[in-house]
Amino acid sequence: MPKKLTVQEVAKETETDPVLKQVIAAIQNQNANAWEKPDIRQFKNVKDELTLGQSIILRGHRIIIPTSLQQRTIKLAHLGHQGIVKTKQLLRSKVWFPNIDKLTEQEIRKCIACQATDESKYKAPLQLRDVKDELTLGQSIILRGHRIIIPRSLQQRTIKLAHLGHQGIVKTKQLLRSKVWFPNIDKLTEQEIRKCIACQATDESKYKAPLQLRETPRSKVWFPNIDKLTEQEIRKCIACQATDESKYKAPLQLRETPNQPFINLDIDYAGPFQNNKYAVLQYH
C-alpha cells in the first residue's frame, strides 16, 4: 500500500525535479521565451494558471506533482478501486501533471484486483468461424465440432436411417443435424423424404378439396336447350350418381280411383305384436 503523501514531500521532490525547476524559473522571470524550451513546452498552455507557494507549484488550487511522485499519487487515488473514470476525477480535483489521464489509465490497467473483478473478459466476443476452423480428426473420421461428417456414399443411407420413424421433414433434419453433417444436408434430406411412399400415403394434403369454380349463374350465359343439355351432362356424372340419395326415396305413386264399394285397393301388415302376432291391413 502506498504511503501517505505530504506537502513537504511534494516540495522536496519539486526542488530536485529538473523539469519543475525550469518551470519555477520561467514563472519567476516571467520570460515568455522560456516556455518554448522542449522540457517545459507542455506547461505553456496552462502558464497563466501557474503560481508558486511554499516551494510547490500550483495550477489554480491544484498541486503540480513532480515526476518521482506521480505513480505513487495515482496509486493513492486508486486505493478504493473505483475504476478509471472516478479515479481520474478524484485526481484532477486535487492535483495535476502532464498526461495525467493517460498515465492514470496505464497504471489502473495493471491493477490485479481490478482485473480479477472485470466482467468484460468473461463476455465472449462475436466471432464468425469458418467451417474449416471447426474440422478435426478423430479415429479415422472427420468431425465438425461434435458431429461426424458423412461421406457421399453413405449420405442417402444416413438420411433413410434418420427417417425410419417417418416424422416429417423438419424433425428428420433436426435429428440429422444434431448428430452428423455433410454439404447440402437440408436440401438432400428434403429430396429424399419427398420420395418416401409411406409419407405420401399419409399425406393429408392430397385429401384437401381442390379449388373449384362455382357454376356460373344462368344470368351470365345462355345457349339453346341450356336446361336439357345441363341435365343430360349431370346425369352422366359418376360422382353425382354415387352420392345421389334419390334412389332411396320411394317414388310418388297415384292409386287407382275406386268406382264401386268394397274394392280391394291395397294390403299391408304391421307387427310383430305380443305373442308374435301380426295385423293385416286391407284398404278398401
Automatic annotation (TrEMBL):
Pfam families: Integrase_H2C2
Molecular functions (GO terms): RNA-directed DNA polymerase activity
Stretches assigned to the Integrase zinc-binding domain: 65-117, 150-202
Taxonomic superkingdom: Eukaryota
EC number: 2.7.7.49
InterPro entries recorded: Integrase_H2C2, Retrovirus_Pol_polyprotein
Broadest EC class assigned to this enzyme: transferase
PANTHER family on file: INTEGRASE CATALYTIC DOMAIN-CONTAINING PROTEIN, PROTEIN CBG26694
The name this protein goes by in its record: RNA-directed DNA polymerase
Organism: Popillia japonica
